[in-house]
Give the backbone structure.
Amino acid sequence: MAPERFVPIGQRIALIRRRRGLSQAALAARVGRSESWLSKVERGDRPIERLSILGELAAVLDVPVSELTGDPPRAVRARAEQHDAVEQVRQALSEFDFLALLLQPATGPAVSERDLTELRAQVDRAWQLTHASDYANLAPLLSSLLADGERAARAMDNGRRAEVFEMLARTYEAVAAVMAALGEPELGWVAAERAIMAAERAGSPLLSVAGVFRLAHALVGAWRLEQAERVAASGALAIASQMSDGTSEGVSLYGALNLVRAVVASRRGDGTTAWQAMSEAERAAAVLGADRNDFHTEFGPTNVALHAVAVAVELGESGEALRRATAVNADSLSPERRARFLIDVARAYGQRRDTAAAVASLKAAYELTPEQVRYHPLVRELVRDLVRRARRKPNRELLRFAQSIGVV
């Protein structure tokens, strides 16, 4: 993959600010910052260390966040820096052959018990690959599962149809999870909504809420933070009773939705709400008393601790993030989740301008899940910032890592 060309964020802000007819003083005042701060950002002498600030600048300038970060349009990313899995999944989601099955009676062979057993095993395999961030092997499996699941759901008799729709919902949730990890929130959004519909047809309320959890994640990735908050909060409210008289699965979902709420609030710079949501998640984890993986949320005390690090990073509290990180042992979680934690640790080191430590954490994450790290938007942006800061005194390890993931 050829290294990408990139215009620094500061230059983009300056260009768009001038287009809007705003002075540095006027723009800085609207985001509660000094003119000196904005001048340094535009010159590239000071990084924007919190996504919430980037969101505020984008809102004032009336542009998507992606226009400030320089993320290429989706069509360009598919050729330049997008994982091949994205295009495969996009094609699978855009094939509407199953609509014909709604209008015509099934003409193919009936689905046997053996077929159902194999389908269930393949869905479990898809989630194993999802948790391992093995996207190259996962994408073709997901494509076939979506087609097979849609056909099987319409070919089964009414007595077994709900069972197939449940497997189909789990498959769509895996698609949503992968698209969120690869920075494709729109595809994740589509998959999450289909997961919710399939779960409804399966007659599984908690599985529907799991789809809501995936939808909230997709909205966070698309920077639709108000919508993400509404979706996550409504989902948490709907199952709040699970905390007192529900199942462990319901408690896990309640806690996981509050983790989403915490991330949303931290990206908006609302530390009070973020830590309140974290407290609710901690309460749910205490009820469980152990790490679980209900609906593939990996919710439990360890995941809550990892999210506390992420929230602190989003709020720009790098010291708090690193303090919390030292107390975390994530060995019980999936490679995907452990690598995501290391990415957040790297971001905290980046905020403290400790390039060597940031690169070491990114390399450790890469050892766990190379595909996730290579294509994760936050990694690419962090590496760009580190390279720009080190332009007067290049760090060889940083430059080698940047080249390995296609960032100059």
Remarks:
- Residues 1-5, 72-80 have pLDDT under 50 and may be disordered.
- The chain has 24 helices and no strands.
- The longest helix spans residues 158-181.
- Residues 172 and 194 are 7 Å apart (CA to CA).
